[in-house]
Design a protein that fits this description.
single chain; mainly alpha
Length: 231
């Protein structure tokens, strides 16, 4: 994406930077909860901020966005530095939730928009938007030894899917980028915000034999006895 090409390129450029920084902050906050050092703060921030976009670009055959533009990594490191300088604060977990919601909503739009701009089928573009939002957070949670967002039965992937879908549909209907982008962002963030505020979640699978033994670890067995997934 070249900021000098056109308004769409400019929008994607700045949204990409903002989303990377916000997701980078969530990675640093996860490191803060584990009381890691400043180097780990930066590593968590970078891997969280660019992880989802890296997977997206590899899948759609685009140049990986941050390789020739180190500003993305620098934005993540700047976010990590801010989190480090804030010191010990009791509101970190809530900040992690809300920053993650903002990053998720922005990346749902950015990931879908980039895929559409490269001629990817709209359905696949929506999938790319969801992957862009989820993959960095998955890596973050694994590194921080936190319950993985895909293993928590809360509305997250669904919110990203809604935002990406709204944006893609509006673009197909001919809506300009910014109205479509704002609508997609608002839909994703609004649903996620309600899930955080009111504890919304999708119902779990009601069938099956609850007395059946759990499969052994490494063969699909749930972690800590929980089979709940993030949806």
């Amino acid at each position: 994406m070249d900021v000098h090409l056109d308004p769409l390129g400019t929008a994607l450029f700045w949204l990409d930077y903002a989303a990377a920084a916000v997701f980078g902050a969530t990675g640093a906050l996860a490191a803060a909860r584990r009381k890691h050092d400043i180097i780990t703060f930066g590593f968590f921030a970078a891997i969280t901020g660019v992880g989802g976009g890296t997977l997206r670009d590899l899948l759609i055959g685009a140049p990986v966005f941050w390789v020739q533009r180190p500003g993305y990594i620098l934005a993540c490191l700047a976010a990590a530095t801010v989190v480090w300088l804030l010191g010990k604060r009791g509101w970190r977990f809530r900040a992690l939730l809300w920053l993650d919601a903002l990053g998720m909503a922005a990346y749902a739009v950015v990931g879908t928009a980039k895929a559409l701009s490269l001629g990817v089928h709209p359905f696949s573009a929506v999938v790319m938007g969801v992957l862009t939002t989820a993959f960095g957070g998955v890596i973050r949670d694994v590194l921080a030894e936190e319950p993985n967002l895909l293993l928590r039965r809360e509305i997250y992937i669904t919110a990203a899917l809604l935002g990406a879908g709204v944006f893609a549909v509006l673009q197909l209907l001919g809506a300009p980028f910014w109205p479509a982008g704002i609508a997609g962002f608002s839909a994703a963030f609004g649903l996620r915000a309600c899930a955080i505020k009111f504890g919304w979640s999708l119902p779990g699978f009601a069938g099956g034999d609850e007395q059946s033994p759990s499969p052994p670890a490494g063969e699909g067995g749930p972690r800590s006895g929980s089979g709940e997934g993030s949806h």
